[in-house]
From TrEMBL:
Protein's UniProt keywords contain S-adenosyl-L-methionine: no
Organism: Streptococcus infantis SK1302
Coiled-coil portions: none
Protein's membrane topology: Multi-pass membrane protein
Localization per record: Membrane
Keywords: Cell shape, Membrane, Transmembrane, Transmembrane helix
Protein name: RodA
Domain of life: Bacteria
Transmembrane segments: 31-50, 57-75, 81-98
Chief location bin: membrane
Length: 125
């Protein structure tokens, strides 16, 4: 699915670029391209959510992010999204490493094996 997903998104980018080659690339046009890419990404992530496969979902999100970078989307869109994602990850880790953070994550539905994997990543020894 990963290879076909890359080919599908590449096709979406090429068709979108060819359709709008006469007009200048603007921020709303870049958002429209990202929206089209999200439309093709949601079914994949939905199927992965049904399987509870976070690792593979993160791989697909990384593929999506790489193709957004390669598509020529404006940095005025990429930088705020990147800052938001980094802030979200930092917030998650801040909650996770607190005294009762892991218990909170378990209460909101995070599986124990995922908590253990993050703990092993944070403290490998």
């Amino acid at each position: 699915m990963k290879i076909s997903y890359i080919l599908i998104l590449a096709r979406v980018i090429v068709q979108f670029t060819q359709k709008h080659k006469e007009s200048e690339r603007t921020i709303p046009l870049d958002f429209l391209l990202i929206l089209w890419m999200i439309i093709f990404t949601l079914p994949v992530l939905g199927l992965l959510a049904l399987q509870s496969d976070l690792g593979t979902a993160l791989v697909f999100v990384a593929i999506f992010a790489g193709l957004v970078l390669l598509s020529g989307v404006s940095w005025k869109i990429i930088i705020p999204i990147f800052a938001t994602v980094v802030s979200g990850i930092a917030g998650f880790l801040a909650i996770f490493i607190t005294k009762d953070g892991r218990a909170f994550m378990h209460q909101v539905g995070m599986p124990t094996y995922q908590i253990n994997r993050i703990l092993a990543w944070l403290n490998p020894f």
